[in-house]
């Protein structure tokens, strides 16, 4: 009986198996969808306008966790700093100034991880502790090394004093500047602050997404503009309906429509302003606002709410709402909520150099969401980013702007700029000093 049924339906069974297999392969293909744009050096001759400092104070994402194994050492020269990053045998990530206090070798190029938390210079073997930055006698004892420091009287003019060009300027212990690093959500972040008083006194932490969602992939793009252009775009309500309406480049019959709000988290009416007309979104939004905003970090957060609609042949459908947190100058977390899914985007912007910014989006989705759906969402995000990039790569930084104060959009932009400018405190002085060191 079964045999007869099998023979009668043989073709159907084969077709079903083949299609299931193809579907499965297609499904798996987008499991970790990664979009990587080629980095191109910025054109130095392009006009850029009068800009604020280039590396505002904040948390910066330097690399992903899977790019740094135990005992691995890397050098980064992002954000105007030179930093060695390494993972000790205790699995912890450490970040120190890259240049050895002995004779200036780069610890990030050939340095060796020693014991739990130390790194050894590749030139003469001096050892530095990642926990403190101290130069130590050995990675076991961690006793501080005693050194004498010498300096030129005048390095440029070769000036002699008492028959010597050099003089002893210090005796005692030395250390390399230690940067605070955090490993969260599969990424490694480092605190860069130009001000001495905030080196160890960090005013807010990056978010621990602690997500129940699956990591689904990442997009990496490079933009040639001032860092502020990118987060400012997230607060620029008006440009969404102007620049971001196309879902596909080949047709205008399917279009996006947006409704956006942007508000500083420290404002008292935040919850009122963010109230959503759909109860299930309201509940979700209130929950995440409460989870991530607290008394100590609210000053450093700008909250965004974005309703997304799709218009097909004139009919409008609600797609999702996104609640976004701009945390400090270089991190954005976007929580998308619809009846069908939850998706989180973690965006980070990292200035590799002035006017050369790496923008990354990592996407996390419900485990039941098909891989190609999350891949398509990341792809759509990249499409929207590419529309912005055409503007950013060619614009000047507007230091003097003409606003239309009859519109909420422009009023919001002024208030947003006032908020973001706080991240530049102390940076100009620091950047000038860095440039003086570069001669
Ligand atoms: S330069 Fe680092 S030990 Fe000599
Ligand atoms: Fe945009």
UniProtKB/TrEMBL annotation:
<dbReference type="GO" id="GO:0016020">
    <property type="term" value="C:membrane"/>
</dbReference>
<keyword id="KW-0479">Metal-binding</keyword>
<dbReference type="InterPro" id="IPR017941">
    <property type="entry name" value="Rieske_2Fe-2S"/>
</dbReference>
<dbReference type="GO" id="GO:0051537">
    <property type="term" value="F:2 iron, 2 sulfur cluster binding"/>
</dbReference>
<feature type="transmembrane region" description="Helical">
    <location>
        <begin position="12"/>
        <end position="27"/>
    </location>
</feature>
<keyword id="KW-1133">Transmembrane helix</keyword>
<comment type="similarity">
    <text>Belongs to the cholesterol 7-desaturase family.</text>
</comment>
<keyword id="KW-0472">Membrane</keyword>
<dbReference type="InterPro" id="IPR050584">
    <property type="entry name" value="Cholesterol_7-desaturase"/>
</dbReference>
<dbReference type="Pfam" id="PF00355">
    <property type="entry name" value="Rieske"/>
</dbReference>
<comment type="pathway">
    <text>Hormone biosynthesis.</text>
</comment>
<dbReference type="GO" id="GO:0170056">
    <property type="term" value="F:cholesterol 7-desaturase [NAD(P)H] activity"/>
</dbReference>
<dbReference type="InterPro" id="IPR036922">
    <property type="entry name" value="Rieske_2Fe-2S_sf"/>
</dbReference>
<dbReference type="GO" id="GO:0046872">
    <property type="term" value="F:metal ion binding"/>
</dbReference>
<comment type="pathway">
    <text>Steroid hormone biosynthesis; dafachronic acid biosynthesis.</text>
</comment>
<keyword id="KW-0411">Iron-sulfur</keyword>
<keyword id="KW-0001">2Fe-2S</keyword>
<keyword id="KW-0408">Iron</keyword>
<dbReference type="Pfam" id="PF19298">
    <property type="entry name" value="KshA_C"/>
</dbReference>
<feature type="domain" description="Rieske">
    <location>
        <begin position="59"/>
        <end position="158"/>
    </location>
</feature>
<dbReference type="GO" id="GO:0008203">
    <property type="term" value="P:cholesterol metabolic process"/>
</dbReference>
<protein>
    <recommendedName>
        <fullName>cholesterol 7-desaturase</fullName>
        <ecNumber>1.14.19.21</ecNumber>
    </recommendedName>
</protein>
<keyword id="KW-0812">Transmembrane</keyword>
<dbReference type="InterPro" id="IPR045605">
    <property type="entry name" value="KshA-like_C"/>
</dbReference>
<keyword id="KW-0560">Oxidoreductase</keyword>
<feature type="transmembrane region" description="Helical">
    <location>
        <begin position="317"/>
        <end position="336"/>
    </location>
</feature>
<dbReference type="GO" id="GO:0005737">
    <property type="term" value="C:cytoplasm"/>
</dbReference>
């Amino acid at each position: 009986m079964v045999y007869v049924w099998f023979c009668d339906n043989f073709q159907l069974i084969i077709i079903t198996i083949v299609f299931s297999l193809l579907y499965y392969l297609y499904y798996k293909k987008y499991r970790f969808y990664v979009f990587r744009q080629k980095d191109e050096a910025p054109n130095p001759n392009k006009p850029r306008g009068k800009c604020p400092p280039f590396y505002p104070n904040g948390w910066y994402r330097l690399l992903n966790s899977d790019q740094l194994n135990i005992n691995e050492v890397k050098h980064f020269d992002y954000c105007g700093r030179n930093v060695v990053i390494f993972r000790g045998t205790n699995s912890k990530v450490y970040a120190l100034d890259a240049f050895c206090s002995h004779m200036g070798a780069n610890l990030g190029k050939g340095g060796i991880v020693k014991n739990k938390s130390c790194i050894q210079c590749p030139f003469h073997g001096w050892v530095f502790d990642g926990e403190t930055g101290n130069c130590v006698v050995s990675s076991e004892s961690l006793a501080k090394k005693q050194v004498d420091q010498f300096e030129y009287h005048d390095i440029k003019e070769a000036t002699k004093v008492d028959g010597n060009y050099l003089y002893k300027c210090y005796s005692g212990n030395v250390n390399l500047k230690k940067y605070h690093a955090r490993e969260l959500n599969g990424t490694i972040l480092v605190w860069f602050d130009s001000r001495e008083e905030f080196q160890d006194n960090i005013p807010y932490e990056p978010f621990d997404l602690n997500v129940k969602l699956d990591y689904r992939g990442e997009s990496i793009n490079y933009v040639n503009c001032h860092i502020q252009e990118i987060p400012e775009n997230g607060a620029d309500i008006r440009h969404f309906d102007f620049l971001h309406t196309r879902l596909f480049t080949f047709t205008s019959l399917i279009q996006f429509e947006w409704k956006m709000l942007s508000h500083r988290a420290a404002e008292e009416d935040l919850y009122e302003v963010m109230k959503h007309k759909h109860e299930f979104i309201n509940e979700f939004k209130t929950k995440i606002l409460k989870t991530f905003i607290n008394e100590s970090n609210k000053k450093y957060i700008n909250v965004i709410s974005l309703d997304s609609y799709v218009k097909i042949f004139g009919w409008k459908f609600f797609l999702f709402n996104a609640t976004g947190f701009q945390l400090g100058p270089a991190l954005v977390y976007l929580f998308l909520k619809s009846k069908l899914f939850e998706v989180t985007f973690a965006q980070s912007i990292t200035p590799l150099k002035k006017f050369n910014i790496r923008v990354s989006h990592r996407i996390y989705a419900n485990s039941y969401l098909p891989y190609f759906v999350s891949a398509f969402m990341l792809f759509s995000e990249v499409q929207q980013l590419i529309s912005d990039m055409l503007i950013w790569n060619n614009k000047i930084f507007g230091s003097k702007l003409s606003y239309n104060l009859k519109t909420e959009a422009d009023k919001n932009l002024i208030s947003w700029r006032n908020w973001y400018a706080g991240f530049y405190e102390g940076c100009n002085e620091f950047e000038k000093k860095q440039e003086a060191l570069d001669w």
